[in-house]
Amino acid sequence: MRVQLVDPSHELLDAVIQLGDRNRATLGFLAGAAFEQAAHSRTLLAATIRGKLAGYALFALPAQRIRLAHLCVDDRFKHRGIARLLVDKISELHQDRSGIGLKCRRDYGLEPMWTALGFEQTNEVDGRGADRHPLVVWWRDHHHPNLFTDLESTAQFRVAMDLNVFADLYSRDPRSGREETQGLTASWIEDMVDLLVLPTLVEEIGKLKDPAERRRQLALASNHDRLHPDRAAADVLVREMLTRGKTEFGLDLPREPNDLLDLRYVAEASVSGVGYVVSRDNFLTSSIGPLAEAVCNVRVLRPSEIVVHVDELIRAQAYQGRDLLGTSFSDGAVPAGQEERLAVFLDQPSGERKSSFHARLRDLASKPATWDRRWILDGDGRPAALYCMRQQDGQMEVSLLRTAVSHPLAGTLARQLLYLLKGMCRDQGISVLRLSDPNLSKDIRTAAAEDGFQSHQDTLVALVVDACADASSITDLAAQAGALVGFDTPELPASMPAAAAYAVERAWWPAKITDAELPSFLVPIWPLFASDLFEFSPSLLPRNDRLGISRQHVYYRAARSAGERVPARILWYASSDKNRTVQQVIACSRLDDTVVDQGRALHARFQHLGVWERRHIDKAANTEGLARALLFSDTEIFPRPISLSRLRTLADEHRHSLRLQSVSKIPPQLFSALYREGHIAR
């Protein structure tokens, strides 16, 4: 018996797809492209006996966890321990991850099997299909510090449905090709996708001739979040798409009445702040799709595209750096007399009353010596975020933290705000950040979970450990910070696996654990691109406005490997170009992922992250058109950039031979020396 990763070019892949298709009644439909993507991503395992496929496991690696989507054994080979071999192999390959999670329908009766495979039941949730079968949540722990085993993002991919997708899910009539859409209801993915209802969908359902079926489908639609876009604003976008479709895209619309409905789906999604529509309509996805993106900044996706790229799409929706960078946000104190403008921050989903909210605002405004009330306005002067904070006993308490739910960048701003607040704590020597707002939005709670906030006495607490030191020292500093709020912290072991250290460094940012197995790389970057990515002035002084720097970015380089591993840390060395000579180590980032693909494909996947144009990627590509994308986040600009001469001196002291022409791995001792020196002026 042999367990191996499936090569995308091997005939074994076809056998895996066929086995999955034969078991779609329990596994759910999964397009062949999803299996191919998993093979390319090295997340598809196969077990063979004498050359015949006996079973397979398909999984994903979101954040620092493992998500098991399919575990399937051929009926001919059951009761031979194949499922255990596959699961054990996943753990062996990714032992540094916090563990393996999965969801499985309770009515399948597989509890004894999952228990025997080392999983524990942690929760039960309702399914989201028409029948809403309960799902059991299972977890197989890898026994890393338990503070970080529950940090799985609760973020969902928000996408508006058109009628053909809704009918695929709920119509009782036979529908050709509906399996593609029903892939969105598989147990492993259904709670990751938030399928939204637009007015046009309700209007189309209302035209069904059968009264009983019409009422049934309207009732099912009410189980989904319903959007309420401004109709006049949507009308404006429809007219613009009709005009530009003809002048710029050669589309003489409408060809038929349904085309106007398609345009309304796109326009209503855009006005609602939703950047995606899902459809199986070929004309909508292929012909109207480019027009929708150009006019409304809305992408039209097929259901299979969502299934294949769901983690990437969630990340794209959470980090819309391009849109944030392209808008003039401003951060300032809230002036008097703004109560009505602040009504956009009322938390209606939790039942917060307007009178109570205004009373809180007045109470906080009456204590200016204690509470600092601030808001963020977008380029149109609209309130986009609101926060109110004070410092007390070594803590920063944030009693009010809101993003405008209707703002299209609410999720991105939530993540920016938390990073901004942690940065304020670091600058002011504060080691505890506490969110005490009882009405935190879903966006903020999701972002806080991703950033390592923990529930404690009806608040969310994060520790800010400003140190670059070994695990023992970081443990002691975290314990001291936790003691301020009666918060227990785990003891970190020496030689922590890379993924575990990565999770700790994110949760206790800006902590850097010097004796962990988290690698560090020195990455050269031209000054022009450093200016674009990090928004340097010509003197390389960082911007005063941290909101201008997206938390996640992408950098492109040649496709050949320089030994990059993820997760990792990056130190950025700004070199020289025809306009400027810098030759300094200027910043530190976390390396989240690295992807090799055609330049066009990379641009399509990561253009939401900001400043890169297609021509820049093509310039970095090799003769086959392949380039490498480095996805990185939470960049810290050094208060004191490190000169080339000092870099060479420190490298010599640590007996390291510098390579500044390409990406190179550096030893942990040199990383520590450079990081500390870059922060001497702090």
Q: Your description of this structure?
A:
The protein has 682 residues and is α/β, with parallel strands linked by helices. The protein has 4 domains: 2-143, 3-Layer(aba) Sandwich (Aminopeptidase), CATH 3.40.630.30; 157-318, Rossmann fold (3-Layer(aba) Sandwich); 330-464, 3-Layer(aba) Sandwich (Aminopeptidase), CATH 3.40.630.30; 520-678, Hypothetical protein (Archaeosine Trna-guanine Transglycosylase, Chain: A, domain 4, Roll). It contains 24 helices and 26 strands. Strands 1-2-3-4-5-7-6 form a 7-stranded mixed sheet, with helices on both faces. Strands 12-13-14-15-16-18-17 form a 7-stranded mixed sheet, with helices on both faces. Helix 3 (32-40) packs across helix 13. It is globular, with a radius of gyration of 26 Å. Mean pLDDT is 88; it is low at 148-153, 322-326 and 537-549.
Features:
682 residues; alpha/beta; Rossmann fold; Aminopeptidase; 4 domains; seven-stranded mixed beta sheet; Acyl_CoA_acyltransferase; GNAT_dom
Short description:
With 682 residues, the protein is an alpha/beta fold. Strands 1-2-3-4-5-7-6 form a 7-stranded mixed β-sheet, with helices on both faces. Strands 12-13-14-15-16-18-17 form a 7-stranded mixed β-sheet, sandwiched between helices. Strands 22-25-24-23-21-26 form a 6-stranded mixed β-sheet. Helix 3 crosses helix 13 (303-318), helix 10 (231-249) packs across helix 11 (257-271) and helix 16 (410-427) packs across helix 17.
